[in-house]
Design goal:
Layout: E1 3-4, E2 10-11, H1 14-19, H2 37-50, H3 57-63, H4 72-83, H5 86-108, H6 117-135, H7 140-159
Antiparallel strand pairs: 1-2
Helix pairs in contact: 2-3, 2-4, 2-6, 2-7, 3-5, 4-5, 5-6
Length: about 160
């Protein structure tokens, strides 16, 4: 498991250091925390849209993989490293995995009978709540900065 040093560098951790393997692990310096916030907020919004697409499970599953969700794992891991919140990160990935499996099961049924839409909607809400819990580890000023960037992006997008 990677930890973050005070300079923002990823560290391989004591287990790898103890075994002498840390020198073989590539260490990438993390971008500023504020750069990860807008894409995660957009991905959270995209997950919320899935609740409206439950009539077509294939489309809903596509929303879990495209758009703002493409880089979600990387962004979420970075936020978890900054906030030292690996447990919350596991909760996010577990909630998304459960939702994905439910949608997959519903997509396999051509009559769309097996998809329990209420359960799927609850899983969407659980995934959004898990992301919100992860974002709660972000300092308020950094979160405000990320939200401002997101507002500017939305204004520029809506004006085009």
């Amino acid at each position: 498991m990677l930890a973050t040093t005070s300079t923002g560098e990823a560290s391989a951790g004591p287990l790898l250091r103890e075994r002498g393997l840390e020198q073989y692990i590539r260490k990438k310096k993390l971008d500023p925390l504020s750069s990860y916030i807008p894409p995660i907020l957009l991905a959270r919004d995209q997950i919320s849209i899935i609740a409206q697409a439950l009539d077509t499970p294939d489309e809903a599953r596509r929303l879990l993989r495209e758009g703002f969700m493409e880089g979600f794992r990387t962004n979420a891991r970075a936020v978890a490293e900054y906030g030292q919140a690996e447990g919350l990160l596991r909760d996010v990935f577990k909630a998304l995995g459960t939702l994905n499996f439910t949608l997959f099961s519903g997509a396999r049924d051509p009559d769309n009978i097996t998809l329990d839409k209420e359960a799927a909607a609850a899983q969407v809400n659980a995934a959004v709540a898990a992301i919100d819990a992860l974002l709660a580890t972000v300092p308020e000023d950094t979160m405000r900065e990320g939200q401002k960037v997101l507002e500017v992006l939305r204004e520029n997008y809506s004006s085009t």
